[in-house]
Amino acid sequence: MTIADISLGDYPLFLAPMEDITDPSFRMVCKINGADVMYTEFISSDGLIRDGQKSVRKLDIYDFERPIGIQLYGHLTEAMVEAALMAEEAKPELIDINFGCPVRKIANRGAGAGMLRNIPLMLEMTEAIVKAVNLPVTVKTRLGWDDDSKNIVDVAERLQDTGIKALTIHGRTRAQMYKGDADWTLIGAVKNNPRMKIPIIGNGDIDGPVKAKEMFDRYGVDGIMIGRATVGRPWIFRDIKHYLATGELLPEPSVNEKADIAILHLDKSLEYKEGNRAIYEMRRHLSNYFKGLPHFKETRLKLLTAVEVDVIRSVISDIRQQWGNYRTDDKTSIYGI
Question: Which of 49, 70, 101, 111 is catalytic?
């Protein structure tokens, strides 16, 4: 698979952009576990052009994570073009446009998945950004606004005509939010539409190697994007790649292995962020790394409320000493098979 002139090999795996999750430290642990392409947290075009600190900070990218895309959202074409030009200065490999976020405060303003109710504006905005920047532009969107407007096959063709270089489709409507099962049949319909020439990346409900292989085989997508299933499980990329190559399911990492990744994640968060922000934003990640351990409630609370780095390290050390080589799939497979 290639996006413009970016070669990604066979069966590439993408880390989905997730607000307050896919920061540089999380992107690092996903990268070392096999993620092929990653995106920044999505960035408000309004916040960026107004020099909002949080938005500008999200432009920080590092050589270890390439190829990487910067994802933008907004409801005004002029602001989105200006933001895209600012993002281009950060020198990512891709500019991605978010037409898929279902969160009410974003979609109801006409941004994110809200664009699915105004396809002419979606196309106008996309074409303007494609013409304004020199980098490849990609889009992420959904099947439609609701069950009565699943128009992704037509919308995909029209987006392709604007000049985008790849399209990611989440297999739900905006009305579904993240409920119910993702419908990959329409993702497959887009991929198998003979008029489509750009790569199609499927997204939704990929929770392990078996599901990933099934989606590649059944629908022929060029790549797969994984979001929520990576939280607390960045090794999912490693597991999928191994299964695609060998047909063998790797065992769940031991507690010792998870602790190593958790400490690396913590160290990188401290390196990339200032003050207590690193601790506050890391705590939920850390508790998710050890999800599934027996009688974990009290320890989880310690991780979620710790305010000092030494305390966090001590809790992780205690987890390591108590559980060591234990694997949470000793009794129940994390892949449900």
Answer: 101
Computed from CA positions of residues 294, 296, 299, 300, in that sequence, does the dihedral angle turn out positive or negative?
A: positive
Query: For 272-282, what is the mean pLDDT?
Result: 83
Dist CA 201 CA 334 (whole Å): 24
* Closest among 100, 56, 25, 33 to 250, alpha carbons compared: 33
Q: Which residues pair with 6 in a beta bridge?
A: 3
Query: What was the pLDDT predicted at 325?
Result: 83
| CA–CA dist 237, 30 (Å, integer) | 7
Check the CA dihedral 261-263-268-269 and report its sign: positive
Token readout for 49 is: 């052009």
Domain ranges of the chain: 8-246, 255-323
Number of other residues whose CB lies within 10 A of the CB of residue 72:
27
- What gap in Å lies between CA 318 and CA 142, rounded to an integer? 43
Instruction: Band the pLDDT of 324: cuts 50, 70, 90.
Output: confident
Please indicate whether residue 30 is annotated as part of the active site.
Answer: no
Could you give the residue ranges of the DSSP H alpha helices within the chain?
24-32, 45-49, 53-57, 77-89, 104-107, 119-132, 152-162, 184-191, 209-219, 236-246, 255-272, 277-289, 297-305, 309-323
d(CA 153, CA 309): 49
Q: What percent of the chain has pLDDT over 90?
A: 83
CB 208 within 8 A of CB 236: yes
Instruction: Give the integer Cα–Cα distance in Å for 6 and 19.
Output: 25
Please say if the pLDDT value at position 295 is more than 90: no
Residue 334's pLDDT is 36
The contacts of residue 130 (CB under 8 Å, 6+ apart) are 137, 162, 163, 164
Lowest mean pLDDT among 59-63, 304-308, 328-332: 328-332
Region label for 324, one of left (φ > 0), alpha (ψ between -120 and 50) or beta (otherwise) = left
Map residue 331 onto helix, strand or coil.
Answer: coil
8-246 belongs to CATH 3.20.20.70: yes
